[in-house]
Structure formats: C-alpha cells, structure tokens
Amino acid sequence: MGSTTAGRDQTAIQSRRVVISGYYGYRNSGDEAVLKSILFALQEEGARQGIAIVPVVLSIDPAWTSQMYGVESVHRMRLGEVIRAIRGSDGLISGGGSLLQDATGVKTIPYYTGVMRRARPLRWARWPAAGRCGCGSSRSTPHQTQRRLDG
Q1: What 3-state class would DSSP assign to 131?
Q2: Where are the domains of the chain?
Q3: Most buried among 30, 60, 69, 139, using CB within 10 Å?
C-alpha cells in the first residue's frame, strides 16, 4: 500500500502502488502501446503530484514485461499472485481497448470483471475502473452477460 520513504536529503516521498490489468505480455503491438501510454501518464502524474507511482502489471509473461518496461509484473493467470498484487495496491487500472467482450473467448468477460471484483472490497475502491476500457461485441444473450457481470 502507499508508503513514505526518505531519500538522501531526508525529504519524504510518498509512493502509491497501482495494478494495471489488460491484455499485456502477449507482445501485441496495440495493447503494448496502450500499456506504454498508461505507464507514461502515471509517471507524468506522479511527478506532477510529487509522489512515486509504482506500477504492477498483470501479464501473461511477467519476466518479459518487467524487462521491457522496467516495472513489477505478476502472472495474470495465477490467481494468488493477482490477489496479492491487488491487496497490496492503492489502485487498479483496468483498461485499454475493449476488454469487456466475448468475441475472443467466453472467459474474457468473467476474467476482467473478476479482477475488478477482487479490488471492490478494498478501502480505496468504490468501483475500480479506469477510462478507455470499452465494452465490445458479445455473442452471449444480454441475460447471460449480466449474470456474469453480477457474479
């Protein structure tokens, strides 16, 4: 969670951990570009506010993601790692593209809403969603999709 550290000059610097969820680590140029822009925006906003923002990216290939972007990363399909990352964070960004769709598979909507649902009980989360996370096409009936969203 957020912490304060003192540097050499003994000036306290606040830090905030933010988990970033999306289709990362698959080396898809569009999704990786979205991640790069999110990381840039977080760095800029942190500098503007005088805090260190520590991104933790959920990735299918955490070693590659960490090396590529210089960030912490955990495996997006290892539930224990995802839960620990979310519980140890100050925020969740779920975004980039149309994550909430089932054209790529029936598990897509439950996965991304499940990640958001894991953050909901935390003190900082009213409803953890960030801009530009779209809803794409769905092959399911509206009733089936709503049931998955409601949990």
Answers
A1: coil
A2: 3-150
A3: 69
pLDDT average per 10 residues of sequence, the chain (151 residues)? 56 86 93 95 95 96 98 96 93 77 76 79 52 54 52 52
Question: What six digits make up the tokens of 7?
Answer: 């540097």
Is 3.40.50.20 the CATH classification of the domain at 3-150?
yes
Its pTM surpasses 0.85: no
Alpha carbon of 102 to those of 11, 32, 127, 143: distances in Å? 48, 20, 22, 14
Nearest-angstrom CA–CA distance, 94 and 125: 13
**And the tokens for 26?**
């698959």
CA distance 76 to 81: 8
Angstrom distances, CA of residue 70 to CA of 65, 115, 120, 136, 141: 8, 23, 28, 30, 41
Alpha helices in 2-141 (DSSP H): 29-49, 62-69, 79-87, 108-119
Cβ atoms of 89 and 1 within 8 Å: the answer is yes
Buried residues in 56-75 as b, exposed as e (16+ CB within 10 A)? bbbbebbeebbebbebebbb
